[in-house]
Amino acid sequence: MTLGLYVQRASPLHRLAAGWKLLLLAVSGVLIFTVQDWRLLLGWLALTLALYGLARMGAKTTWAQVRPSLGLLAFFLVFQAVFTNWEAGLVTVLRFGVMILLASLVTLTTRVSDLLATLERALKPLARFGVNPAKVSLAISLTLRFIPVIAQTVSDVQDAQRARGIEKNQLATAIPVIIRTLKMADDVADAIDARSFD
């Protein structure tokens, strides 16, 4: 199982320290959820796509980050449009779409080892309160890693079900995704145990 999403490129974003990227991602997350105007969020999406260009990520790589989430985003759009209005649906979709792209950009331009080291340093002051920075940073890193992996698993299973002509059966999609996710979790746990990580 590949644990890294890092894509090697010579770009300013790759050279930017992991701490700055995580800080900017957190600030962007807070700001994005305070914006209520879909036109501003559309501008934010354009800025995010420009960052992908700055990071020298091609259209195929960029599309691959959001493609697995399209079904969920479509559900949000329809649900909000039906129960509130289309503008609320568009705001929700743009918020989640931009956050998915920004989080993916951090993992695409940052090595997992750099993320772990940065998170451990940031959490070190909490050690005096009984928090283990290594464990917390590993949990956060694995969460960041597993979001796109699970999304890709859903996409792969949907493609396979579509080929069998049963793409509308949600149960037939959910069961393989759950089994694959549990298998991946077991593999990661075994890998962590093999490295004697306490």
How would you portray this structure in words?
It contains 9 helices and no strands. With 198 residues, the protein is mainly alpha-helical. Helix 3 packs parallel to helix 6. The two termini are 21 Å apart.
Topology summary:
Elements: H1 12-15, H2 18-32, H3 38-54, H4 59-66, H5 70-83, H6 86-109, H7 112-123, H8 133-164, H9 170-194
Helix pairs in contact: 2-6, 3-6, 5-6, 7-8, 8-9
Largest beta sheet, briefly?
Answer: none
Would you tell me the structural class of the helices and strands? Answer: mainly alpha
N- to C-terminal distance = 21 Å
Low-confidence stretches: none
- Counting DSSP H or I runs of 4 or more residues, the number of helices is 9
Summarize the structure.
With 198 residues, this protein is an all-alpha fold. Helices cover 76% and strands 0% of the residues. It is globular and about 50 Å long.
